[in-house]
Amino acid sequence: MALILIFASLIVIIFILIKYVDKLRNKRFYELLKQFPSYPTFPLIGNCHLIHVSPKDMQRTLENLLGPHRRLLFWLGPFPIIALKKYDDIIAISNQTQDRDNLLNFANEWLGTGLLNANYDEWKKSRKILAPAFSSLMLSRYVDVFKKKASLLVNSLEPAADSGQVFDCRDILIKINVDTIVENTIGIPVNSTGEEGKQFAHAAALAFRGLMKRLTRPWLYPRFVYKMYLKLTGKENVIQQYRNLPAKILKDELNNNKNRKDFEENDDSLKTIISLLVKGSLQGPTFTETRMRDELLHIMMAGSETTSLNVGFTLLMLAMYQDIQQKVYKEISELFKDNDDLTADHLFHELKYLEQCVKETSRKFTHVVVNLRRTHKECILADNTIIPANIIVIPLIHLANQDPELYKNPHKWDPEHFSDEAVKTRPKGSFMSFGYGPRSCIGDRYAIMSTKTQIVYVIRKYHLSTNIKELTRDHLTSHLAIGSKIGYPIKFTKRVS
């Protein structure tokens, strides 16, 4: 026992000496850090113990720790991290940093390297290759799939409506939205991704938890330790399940195109996401099959997860707020009074109040809670405070979205936050549920259009109600995205024509 204590003491002493020498060599770095409020730190762990919580409670923990502070300095072991919660600081850092930071490549074990976490140069290549898949033209072509899957959603809810009971529609929404992104990705009909789709959705949720758990546990930082942890806990198998579906889709497409050497720029059939990835692989050896799989995985994960959450929370809010549901139903009924078909033009330019509801949902239940950035140079914040170079920054988008300086009733779900009048009162770029700056979400319009389509189909067919009177923080969970601990318990009642 004495030897263990001596050994532990030596480690602490060595750590303190290394830290002292580092402070002498990087005096300006540490001087700049003194500008930021922080909590007491301990050797080796910093103040990581403050966020040593269940991943599902991370949002509330960060919110409580920041309290009145607009910025806060954390030490995750030896790593200084600055958290930001004000929109103007987040805009400033987004404009001055372009590289995401994985904190020792934390995300790579689960996500590989793709749009969500690639360095800037690699991200720029991928963005250029994939941009045509999210153009207005291609979004218009996705509408047929949106409508087909929304119709399947309505039919899947019919047994629940016939039962007259409250029903949690979360699993149905996940399945529908995985199928939707898969069909739009490969460009051919998909009736169901079946067991693979379920495994993908389940593993995606575990991926979010796994990343947050590693972030708050310093002993999992070393890669060899984390790989051993994944193996011993069986999470290696989960990661494999997570990658199976995009790997299979990619393999099929590569086999279909293995003899094809040329891609015509004007060939519209090659504007699907998967064909654009294959085209990119022919432009140079750096765009490998593994890289293509990771890009596909990121798009499938973000496309299905974001839309499932947005649809689920919007339906639940409409069930809670009957007056708002009635306004949405009236807007939809007016639109279809003379035309029974939903078109891309309707989704782009009509259904304004419904879009307010969808955007308010993405504000209130923000898609991404933690978004790591790294400063490669000194960055100047809104009030001229300087963040030192080579430091990790966490823009807390969900807290910026709850800022009372921007939103009249920030903790209330209120579509009037996105009325034309309200939007004009806010600074440009202050709504950043889909990110801000060069690395904002490539699929923001896709998510909104897909969500609007599903809401239209459901509200036309069913009246929604729920026994939930108020959705509190105790009902919410936050890994990388905010979710619902209670699902979406809704009673679906068929409307009488």
Textual characterization of the structure:
- By secondary structure, the protein is an alpha+beta fold.
- The chain has 20 helices and eleven strands.
- The strands form four sheets. It has a four-stranded mixed β-sheet with strand order 1-2-7-4, with helices on one face.
- Helix 9 crosses helix 10.
- The radius of gyration is 24 Å and the shape is globular.
- The chain starts with a helix and ends with a strand.
Number of strands: 11
- Give unreliable regions as ranges: none
Main sheet characteristics: 4 strands, mixed
Provide the structure class: alpha+beta
The number of helical elements comes to: 20
Query: Mean of residue pLDDT?
Result: 82
The level of helicity is: 40-55%
Strand order of the largest sheet: 1-2-7-4
Radius of gyration, taken over Cα atoms and rounded to an integer in Å: 24 Å
Amino- and carboxy-terminal Cα gap: 79 Å
- Assess the beta-strand content as a share of residues: 5-15%
Task: Describe the structure using short key phrases.
497 residues
Structural topology:
Elements: H1 2-25, H2 27-33, H3 58-66, E1 71-76, E2 79-84, H4 87-96, H5 108-111, H6 120-130, H7 136-156, H8 158-163, E3 166-168, H9 170-186, H10 194-215, H11 223-233, H12 235-256, H13 273-281, H14 289-320, H15 322-335, H16 344-349, H17 352-364, E4 373-375, E5 379-380, E6 386-387, E7 391-395, H18 397-400, H19 420-424, H20 444-461, E8 462-465, E9 476-478, E10 482-484, E11 489-494
